[in-house]
Every structure is written in structure tokens, then in C-alpha cells.
């Protein structure tokens, strides 16, 4: 027990970094720790050359920083940012040693013996675990069909192998219920794919070239911390940073201006800005004509007009030169943009006019009333954005799009960029997450399964409610990996019911997480330094090899090992049980990058700065950006951005708001990536180990809540306890809740979050939540 305690690096050591390490004895299989110091420290002075080094990537949904692991006598001693990598890792990255050697580390398969959630398990062998899994899968398929199987994956490890292997395994079984949408960024996906033909198009390489940076519902000082230096460089060079957020967030603390806004009203602000930009003639008409669908024609039935119904790209425009309808891509034409350029009796309107019709009613006063932003601020913001070049909007999978109509929020930001031609240039664009996946072509690691049953998926926000209520089918077997369903899915009490209801829940995790507590069978998996893998993802431009630095503790195995063993039992072993290099090579195929190259270090798929949609070339079939989205129309929504008031808001649901009058928004913290690192010993040492609720002084006073007191946030879904931070850094009527606290730490703010489905992207609207807060007696 005490070997690691003697290895325990105190905070001082952590901050000091490399140097003298207190070291008594080292054993490769010691992985638990106590805070008691039993043996006197014997000091060994290690030189850099005493260590072996290995490289991996911080694989959670963050920035995939390349990390160098320092190994001494088969033990992971410390982690540093890899020299020469474009960003430096953070405290969470270097604290991963404490994840590897965590006291909650799962090191053997565990079978539940107590009640679900109680955390009572007994160790079993892999043989027994695999037998049980096989038996339960076979019984479920026999009695229930593949509709009885559910697979949940998310963002705990975003490498190119593990989640894909899991999904492929269930496909080879013949199919399963899956989650539709993502808790993260479905809304921005539903905006970007039809509009610009690409999801993930980050502009981080040219942030420093920007003159005006609008961080819109996004907090890069915390959530994109590793390259926040690019923002500061822009500022040093004279750029202004403006933050639009109901909370004075950490980015606002560094910014030139904070614009507080009522949550969920961002699209009204964007439409108001568009009205000003169009009416004051700040649009870039040439850009709109050449590179966008603004000139396409819409008929009286609200349909896009095509030359040939069988050719989806044959959009018609009105050519002002020949005064006739022609295909948009005909050479030498001058397409009409403005309505007055069309013959009065044409029966058509331009897409640009359709967009303007949505913006026109949004007078300054109306926007001010809806958003609670002063009219003069809205006017100045619109003019600044339209007349400062280059200007960038930063949304990065923003909090603003985790709202009920988040797709329109994300789309409205692209509208602003397209209208002003502020995209595809250095220092401009919409800064979103993005990475290697958008820069090169990677292949599936496993060939598609021969026969996969089409099975209705569950909208991810509804996993709790649907599973608890046997929708769409009674689930008998639930496999959860890389996902903290007990902390990250909305409406935790419903998720708990679902976990209790399903007769066989398998949770693969490396820690006894809040979710693992509710498993029937916990499978111990490796951490990033204990297996070989590949990262060619969506959060870093680099393709990175993940090297094995140390042996896994106990019986921990990579997720891909588990699927290989199971596949062998189900008769498709050879698809899954190849050496890991086989899957890495399969993924790299087509990208032009080789494993040999990666062994030398991270590889950039393209050279130079990455500028998405450079020169106005979009990734849609027409290479143009679209304003008018037929996919939205098919879902009975407006095909152009419109403002819809969030249902769970004081004005959207006055009756509910009479009981729960405060709007709750979520915030991500420096202490964790979601629930990951939530119980990391080093981080607990430097960050207060208590959740907070930020509340405005007037809201607090009404409720007799004092700064620093415990308070309970509650609504019809549940309760979340937190320490009140009484502050004017939050808008009146809004409270801000922390993301990622474990059940073992009192429970996550997801106990209260809204589990409605974001309308257009099947996403997550945790930031459209009504609550009240009470002081604790
Ligand atoms: N340290 C840390 N970094 C992370 C993560 C983490 O957990 N911890 N998670 C990573 C992941 S997966 C993601 S998706 C990104 C997310 O990155 P961000 O979007 O920056 O993260 P959030 O804190 O969810 O939201 C940002 C802000 O949105 C505000 N907000 C909420 N609702 C609204 C609204 O309706 N309108 C406006 N204008 N603002 C609103 C919140 O007050 C909050 O300050 O961060 C990534 N980086
Ligand atoms: N209340 C609230 N809820 C939210 C948000 C919020 O702001 N507030 N944000 C939302 C957003 S943006 C996101 S992206 C999601 C993130 O939600 P999740 O992706 O569920 O994130 P984590 O909580 O980090 O859970 C990841 C789990 O994977 C485990 N893990 C790590 N590596 C491996 C591995 O190699 N194999 C396996 N099998 N497991 C591994 C970790 O230990 C951890 O338990 O949360 C969403 N939910
Ligand atoms: S947590 Fe994020 S910023 Fe920190 S090291 Fe990992 S990827 Fe980098
Ligand atoms: Mo996310």
C-alpha cells in the first residue's frame, strides 16, 4: 500500500517540475496510495538520461496535447508537454500520473454484489467476465432481438481506435440501439454540415491575425486554454476581444468588453446585427454572389428553384445581364442578389431576401428587450464586426449552442461571417474545434459489417428517460465506454433509474467512476500510457502515435483487446483480433501518413497555417456556402435562421418559471474535463474541492443566500448542492453551475439539466434549464 505513498509528489514537487524526487522503493505493480507517510524518504537525484521517454496524447475531449511520459524502472514518474509541439499541456495533462496511479483505479473485472450504486463488487477473472458478457448478449439477442442491446460511447478517449472498435463490434453482432446526436456539439454540426459541408473547421492558427475577436458563448481562457496565448497575441497586436456570455467568464476577465446576454437569446442578437449590417450596406455583395447560395431563387411555395429536378445542384439564379434564369454555375453571369434586381412579376425571391425577411423585424428595441443588451451596444457590436477586418467569431462547440434551438445559434454566426465575407481568410472565420480529420482522409479501421439491422436510436439527451420507460425497446444489455452517463447525461435521476432498470450493464472504465458504481460488471481498461493507439482526431491538427510507456496495472486491458476476445467468441474474431498496428495502418491508409513517420513524432497533415474555406471554397457539393437549408425545412423548421424562444425559460414557460424562476447555465472548469480528472489528487490539492453556484446579489438576497454558504439548486428533475458565489459576474435571473462533479463528491449539476432534445441537431440543451436555489438551513 505504501510504496506509492512514498512516491507521492507533493504539490511543491509538482510545481517545481523535474528535479529531485523523493523515492523509497519502486515496484512496477504498486498502484494504490495512502496519504500516510510510513517510510522515511531516501532522496535519489535523477538525471534526464535516467528516464526512458514515451509520447502519447491527452485523449479526452480537449486539445489532444502531445505529452511526454518519463519512465524510471518501469514506473511513470512524470509527464511534461512535448518539446516543439504547438501547444503546451496544462495541469490536467501533467497530473495524468495521478490518473494512472489513482486509488480508484479499477484493476480487475468486478462483478456487482451489492445494490446498484452502492459500489460493492467482487473481483472476477477475465474468463468469467467474458463468459458473462457472451451469455447476456446471446440471451438478449435470442429473447429481445438486437433491439435489446444498447451501446453508449462518448469523449473520454477520442483516439481513432477504441470507440470505433466498439461501434463496429455491435454492428458485427447485427446491430444495436445507439445514441443519436452528441451531448457536445450536435447543434453546430446540424448547422455546419449543410451550410459549409464540413463539421469542425477551427481557425486557431490565425487567431493572432484577427483585429476583432468575438467569443460568443465560449470561454477559451479555460476551455481552449492551451492556445489561449494566440488570443493574447492578437490583443497585443491591437485586436479587441469581446465576450458575449451571461457570465463574466475567465475570457471576459482578459477581454476588452463583456456583453451579458439572456441565455438562449443569441439568435435574436445575431438577427438584429444582420439587420443593421444589411440596412447599412456593410455586406460583401461580391463574396455573397461568388461563394454563397444567397443568389439562389426561392419560389412562392418556399422551395429552392432548380433547372432540373433530378439534379440537386442545378440551382437557378436570375442573371441581370441576360435577364433570364440560368444555372448558378454558368460562367460570365451577374446573378441578382437583391430583390429589386428581379423582375417585379418573377414570382421568386432571392435567398438573400429570405434571410433579410427574418432579420428585418429585429429592430434594436426588440433585440434589446429580448436579450437585455442595451440598443447602443448592439448597434456598435454590429458595426464593429462588419467594418473591422479581419474579424473572427469564436464559438468552439459553444455553451450557446447547447440550448434548445442551438442549431440556429450556430448557423446565425455563420450567416454573419458570410454576409460580411469574414470567412476563409487569415484572422477571420468562425473558430470551431477541428483537427487532423478535416485536413486529411482517414479510413475506417474495420470494414463495414455485412448485415446491420436498422434500429431506432435514442436521442442522446433522452437516454435516461427512454431506457427507464422501455423506449424504443426494452434494453436488456447496456455497454458503456468512454462516457460518464451518471455525470454528463442530463437529468441524472432518470439516468439512475435507467441504470437500475437494465438487467446487465457493462461499464468499461479505468476508474471507479460515478457511472461504474451503477454497473453490473466493471471492466478495467488501460489509460493512455498503457497501450498503443492512434490519434487522428478533431481537436488537434496533429496525427499522433500513442505509445505504451508502462505496463497496465493488474488485469487492465485496452478496450480493443476486450472486443477482440468477444469477437472470437462470436465467430468474427479475425476482423477484430489483428495486432494494433493493423488498425493504425488501416486508419492511416489514404492520408499519406505512415506509422514509421509517427514513430518519430506528431505529424501535421498539411503544411502552413490552416485556414478553413480558404478563398471562399466551401466543402458542399457546389463549393458554395448555403443559407437556405432544405434539411431543416424537411423537419418542419424554417429553412433560414429564425429566432424561436427557448421553451424552458421564464417567457417560454411562465407556469414553470413561477416555481423555478432562475435560468441555469453550465460552465466547464479548469479542474476537469467533464468528469475526467474530477477526483485527481493533484488537482484537488490546488483547486477547491467543492462545486459552486454563481448567483447575482439581488437573487441571493431574495433567497437569504450568503456568499460562501451551501445552497441547493433544484427543479422538478432533481437537486444539486453547491457553494454560493454571490457576485455581479453573473446576470440577474441567471445562475451558473459547474460541470463534472462526481456522485462520490455530492453529485453533478446534471441532476437539474434539461433533457429536452435540441430540435434540429438532436443535441443537448443543458443551458436551457429553469431552477430555483434555496439556502441550506
Ligand atoms: N477545462 C476544460 N476545458 C474543456 C472542457 C472541460 O470540461 N474543461 N470541455 C471541452 C469540451 S468537450 C467542450 S464542448 C468545450 C466547450 O467550451 P465552452 O463552450 O467554452 O464551455 P462551456 O463552459 O460549456 O460554455 C461557455 C460559456 O457559455 C456560456 N453560456 C451558457 N449558455 C449560454 C447562452 O445561451 N448564450 C451565451 N452567449 N452564452 C452561454 C456559459 O456561461 C459559459 O461561460 O470545452 C472543451 N474544453
Ligand atoms: N451538466 C453538464 N453536462 C454536460 C456538459 C456540461 O457542460 N454540463 N457538457 C457536455 C459536453 S460538451 C460533453 S463533450 C460531454 C462529455 O461527457 P463524457 O464524454 O461522458 O465525459 P467524461 O465525464 O469525461 O467521461 C468520460 C469517461 O471515459 C472514461 N475513459 C477515459 N479513457 C477511457 C478509455 O480509454 N476507455 C474507456 N472505456 N473509458 C475511458 C473516463 O474515465 C470517464 O469516466 O458532457 C456533456 N454534458
Ligand atoms: S487537458 Fe486539455 S489542455 Fe490540458 S493537457 Fe490535456 S488536452 Fe492539453
Ligand atoms: Mo463537448
UniProtKB/TrEMBL annotation:
Residues 665-763 form the Molybdopterin dinucleotide-binding domain. Pfam families: Molybdopterin (PF00384), Molydop_binding (PF01568). Residues 105-569 form the Molybdopterin oxidoreductase domain. InterPro entries: Asp_de-COase-like_dom_sf (IPR009010), MoPterin_dinucl-bd_dom (IPR006657), Mopterin_OxRdtase (IPR006656), Mopterin_OxRdtase_prok_CS (IPR006655), Prok_Mopterin_Oxidored (IPR050612). Its cofactor is Mo-bis(molybdopterin guanine dinucleotide). It comes from the Bacteria. Keywords: Iron, Iron-sulfur, Metal-binding, Molybdenum, Oxidoreductase. Gene3D superfamilies: 2.40.40.20, 3.40.50.12440, 3.40.50.740, Dimethylsulfoxide Reductase, domain 2. Belongs to the prokaryotic molybdopterin-containing oxidoreductase family. This is Molybdopterin-dependent oxidoreductase.
Amino acid at each position: 500500500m505504501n510504496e506509492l505513498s512514498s512516491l507521492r509528489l507533493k504539490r511543491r514537487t509538482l510545481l517545481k517540475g523535474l528535479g529531485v524526487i523523493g523515492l523509497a522503493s519502486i515496484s512496477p505493480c504498486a498502484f494504490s496510495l495512502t496519504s500516510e507517510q510510513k517510510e522515511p524518504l531516501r532522496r535519489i537525484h535523477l538525471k534526464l538520461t535516467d528516464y526512458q521517454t514515451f509520447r502519447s496524447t491527452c485523449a479526452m475531449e480537449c486539445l489532444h496535447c502531445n505529452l511526454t511520459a518519463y519512465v524510471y524502472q518501469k514506473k511513470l514518474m512524470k509527464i511534461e508537454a512535448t518539446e516543439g509541439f504547438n501547444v503546451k499541456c496544462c495541469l490536467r495533462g501533467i497530473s495524468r500520473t495521478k490518473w494512472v496511479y489513482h486509488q480508484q483505479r479499477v484493476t480487475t473485472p468486478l462483478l456487482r454484489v451489492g445494490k446498484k450504486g452502492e459500489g460493492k463488487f467482487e473481483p472476477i477473472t477475465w474468463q468469467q467476465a467474458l463468459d458473462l458478457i457472451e451469455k447476456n448478449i446471446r440471451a438478449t439477442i435470442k429473447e429481445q432481438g438486437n433491439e435489446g442491446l444498447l451501446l453508449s460511447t462518448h469523449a473520454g478517449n477520442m483516439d481513432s481506435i477504441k470507440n470505433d472498435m466498439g461501434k463496429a463490434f455491435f454492428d458485427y453482432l447485427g446491430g444495436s440501439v445507439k445514441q443519436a446526436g452528441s451531448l457536445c456539439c450536435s447543434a453546430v454540426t446540424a448547422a455546419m454540415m449543410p451550410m459549409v459541408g464540413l463539421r469542425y473547421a477551427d481557425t486557431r492558427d490565425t487567431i493572432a491575425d484577427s483585429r476583432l475577436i468575438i467569443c460568443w458563448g465560449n470561454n477559451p481562457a479555460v476551455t481552449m486554454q492551451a492556445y489561449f496565448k494566440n488570443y493574447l497575441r492578437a490583443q497585443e497586436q491591437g485586436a479587441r476581444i469581446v465576450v458575449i456570455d451571461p457570465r463574466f467568464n475567465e475570457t471576459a476577465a482578459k477581454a476588452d468588453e463583456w456583453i451579458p446576454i439572456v441565455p438562449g437569446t443569441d439568435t435574436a442578437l445575431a438577427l438584429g446585427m444582420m439587420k443593421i449590417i444589411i440596412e447599412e450596406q456593410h455586406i460583401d455583395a461580391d463574396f455573397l454572389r461568388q461563394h454563397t447560395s444567397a443568389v439562389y431563387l426561392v419560389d412562392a411555395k418556399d422551395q429552392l428553384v432548380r433547372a432540373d429536378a433530378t439534379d440537386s445542384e442545378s440551382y437557378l439564379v436570375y442573371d441581370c445581364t441576360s435577364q433570364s434564369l440560368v444555372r448558378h454555375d454558368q460562367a460570365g453571369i451577374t446573378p441578382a442578389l437583391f430583390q429589386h434586381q428581379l423582375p417585379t412579376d418573377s414570382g421568386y425571391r432571392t435567398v438573400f431576401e429570405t434571410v433579410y425577411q427574418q432579420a428585418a423585424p429585429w429592430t434594436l428595441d426588440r433585440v434589446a428587450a429580448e436579450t437585455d443588451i442595451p440598443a447602443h451596444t448592439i448597434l456598435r457590436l454590429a458595426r464593429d464586426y462588419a467594418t473591422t477586418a479581419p474579424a473572427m467569431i469564436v464559438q468552439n462547440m459553444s455553451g450557446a449552442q447547447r440550448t434548445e434551438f442551438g442549431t440556429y445559434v450556430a448557423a446565425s454566426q455563420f450567416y454573419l461571417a458570410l454576409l460580411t465575407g469574414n470567412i476563409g481568410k487569415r484572422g477571420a472565420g468562425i473558430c470551431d474545434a477541428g483537427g487532423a480529420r478535416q485536413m486529411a482522409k482517414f479510413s475506417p479501421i474495420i470494414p463495414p459489417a455485412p448485415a446491420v439491422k436498422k434500429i431506432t436510436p435514442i436521442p442522446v439527451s433522452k437516454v435516461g428517460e427512454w431506457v427507464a420507460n422501455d423506449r424504443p425497446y426494452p434494453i436488456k444489455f447496456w455497454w458503456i465506454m468512454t462516457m460518464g452517463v451518471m455525470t454528463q447525461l442530463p437529468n441524472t435521476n432518470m439516468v439512475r433509474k435507467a441504470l437500475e432498470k437494465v438487467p446487465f450493464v457493462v461499464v468499461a472504465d479505468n476508474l471507479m467512476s460515478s457511472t461504474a458504481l451503477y454497473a453490473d460488471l466493471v471492466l478495467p481498461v488501460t489509460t493512455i500510457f498503457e497501450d498503443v493507439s492512434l490519434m487522428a482526431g478533431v481537436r488537434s491538427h496533429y496525427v499522433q502515435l500513442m505509445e505504451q510507456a508502462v505496463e497496465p496495472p493488474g488485469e487492465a486491458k485496452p478496450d480493443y483487446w476486450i472486443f477482440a476476445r468477444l469477437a472470437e467468441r462470436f465467430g468474427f474474431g479475425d476482423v477484430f483480433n489483428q495486432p494494433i498496428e493493423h488498425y493504425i495502418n488501416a486508419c492511416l491508409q489514404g492520408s499519406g501518413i505512415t506509422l514509421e513517420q509517427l514513430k518519430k513524432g506528431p505529424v501535421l497533415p498539411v503544411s502552413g497555417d490552416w485556414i478553413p474555406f480558404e478563398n471562399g471554397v466551401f466543402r458542399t457539393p457546389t463549393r458554395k456556402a448555403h443559407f437556405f437549408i432544405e434539411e431543416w425545412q424537411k423537419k418542419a423548421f424554417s429553412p433560414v435562421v429564425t429566432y424561436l424562444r427557448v421553451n424552458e425559460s421564464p417567457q417560454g414557460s411562465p407556469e414553470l418559471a413561477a416555481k423555478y424562476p432562475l435560468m441555469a447555465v453550465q460552465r466547464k472548469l479548469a479542474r476537469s474535463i467533464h468528469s475526467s480528472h474530477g477526483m485527481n489528487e493533484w488537482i484537488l490539492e490546488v483547486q477547491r474541492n467543492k462545486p459552486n453556484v454563481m448567483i447575482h446579489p439581488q437573487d441571493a438576497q431574495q433567497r437569504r443566500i450568503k456568499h460562501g454558504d451551501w445552497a441547493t439548486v433544484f427543479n422538478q428533475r432533481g437537486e444539486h448542492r453547491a457553494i454560493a458565489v454571490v457576485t455581479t459576474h453573473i446576470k440577474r435571473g441567471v445562475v451558473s453551475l459547474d460541470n463534472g462533479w462526481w456522485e462520490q463528491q455530492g453529485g453533478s449539476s446534471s441532476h437539474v439539466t434539461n433533457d429536452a432534445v435540441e430540435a434540429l441537431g438532436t443535441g443537448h440543451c443543458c443551458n436551457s434549464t429553469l431552477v430555483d436555489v434555496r439556502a441550506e438551513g
